[in-house]
Input
Amino acid sequence: MAKRLVPLLNRVLVEKIVPPSKTNAGILLPEKSTKLNSGKVIAVGPGARARDRNLIPVSVKEGDTVLLPEYGGTEVKLGDNEYHLYRDDDILGTLHD
Amino acid sequence: MAKRLVPLLNRVLVEKIVPPSKTNAGILLPEKSTKLNSGKVIAVGPGARARDRNLIPVSVKEGDTVLLPEYGGTEVKLGDNEYHLYRDDDILGTLHD
Amino acid sequence: MAKRLVPLLNRVLVEKIVPPSKTNAGILLPEKSTKLNSGKVIAVGPGARARDRNLIPVSVKEGDTVLLPEYGGTEVKLGDNEYHLYRDDDILGTLHD
Amino acid sequence: MAKRLVPLLNRVLVEKIVPPSKTNAGILLPEKSTKLNSGKVIAVGPGARARDRNLIPVSVKEGDTVLLPEYGGTEVKLGDNEYHLYRDDDILGTLHD
Amino acid sequence: MAKRLVPLLNRVLVEKIVPPSKTNAGILLPEKSTKLNSGKVIAVGPGARARDRNLIPVSVKEGDTVLLPEYGGTEVKLGDNEYHLYRDDDILGTLHD
Amino acid sequence: MAKRLVPLLNRVLVEKIVPPSKTNAGILLPEKSTKLNSGKVIAVGPGARARDRNLIPVSVKEGDTVLLPEYGGTEVKLGDNEYHLYRDDDILGTLHD
Amino acid sequence: MAKRLVPLLNRVLVEKIVPPSKTNAGILLPEKSTKLNSGKVIAVGPGARARDRNLIPVSVKEGDTVLLPEYGGTEVKLGDNEYHLYRDDDILGTLHD
Output
């Protein structure tokens, strides 16, 4: 059974959203329209610890859809699923419909 | 439908202003007169978080016309539109008529 | 007899968990399924000392199962056992069943 | 019509003083006597924002004649005029008659 | 006669423990079992001076057995004895029986 | 007419002292005895601005004879005179008879 | 006549102790026994200025015998004597009989 990961400090565990490469009807989508590098937040750490020993809360929360930087992040494999860990301040923004 | 991006920390979402390459009457403009690298602010983050856990407000606001640095910024594609993300302190100034 | 190591500052002494390379029944496991770089916390330091001379407590505690970065850590040999020392903030997260 | 630029943070907009290369009477001046790299301050930002969220006032003000560093500064073209943006703390000093 | 060295700031004077290369009975020990890089603390400085002008006490004390990093430290020769100076925060931990 | 330069922040305007290469009586001095790199302080800035917005006073004052570092400093030409600008904390010490 | 140098900030003026290369009786000493790089403190600066504008006192005082790092320090020649300037925190320790 896959273990559950609780990130430390200001780390954020993200499951990348793989954009569909073809429509439901089976039509292939051009690469251009699949470019957005986004993910769903699975778990967040308690925040970075400031030198005054308080925690700086993380800017995103579990369930958020986030825009990720093109590079960076640490790949983590839990069971059959692949996740990525990002530092809170490397995440570019949150995405909303 | 295009998603809406809410920038994190002190990031600023900018839509670049493409300078007209010819006048309304169709006369081509020399490259020299189109040099200013400017954009319109679409959305701003809540500000960088200081170590005392307060937010440092972003220097620009939605709707501002801003002067951008020649290099830098992260390209973001939302639907058919192309935007750029800048850190608040990389924006050079605001432009006014 | 092996000596006992008490880490200084925010260092964490970890015993790496060697994933089984075959099942109890003797079937070889593919390398892919053994990838997670984890360990058990054996001892933690008192925490980094802030410039205000207070200690910033370490984020993990003795007995925690932790996710380790792919690189880094200092190998330490005590008696016949091999351990690794990590800085508190290099540890990626804690693992739970 | 040229736009007006309001610098952000501790940036200073400067119009460089082009030293005359010949006297009013038309006598060419040797390069040596035209060496001083100076400019007139056109506009200043509100100041860099300290981590305590207060502004650190800029050391020069509009109208000041300033001594500029040999390198650095960002060229900005507004209408037909060419300006340079400097960080407040890159300006070497103010010049007085 | 050898001089006595009082370290400054957060420096720690250490005499390295040379592991025996053979047993008391004269049997040669394999290199592998002699790997631990440890030393005895001879003297410690008053601590690094914080910007608030207070001293941050050193984490080890005279007489401690310490685990040393593989690289670093400054060799010091006092009389016939060879010592090493380390910064307090380069020492990995204390060793106990 | 030469302009007067008022340095900004913690900058110090120095006129280098050119050591005599021969005695009053005309005897050439060996290069070795002319080595000291010193200068006279012509003007000092108000001091570097701390993040708490106060000024940190400059360590030297107008008229001081100072020992200069071998490298560094920015050459400034005002009228026919050549000066050098140094940062306050690059000046090594003051010289007294 | 040689000038007197008053160091600035946390600089320390040191006269290096040249170890005798032979005994009083004229016997040459092996290089090994002359290795200690020490000096006598001639003058100290008032201390580095903290951002809160207070001075951090220098750790050594005039007359102290100090252990110097192998590299670093700025050579200064005053009259016929050769001295070295060190930053307070580059000095390794004080030596006592």
Remarks:
- The two ends of chain B are 34 Å apart (CA to CA).
- The CA atoms of residues 13 and 85 of chain B lie 5 Å apart.
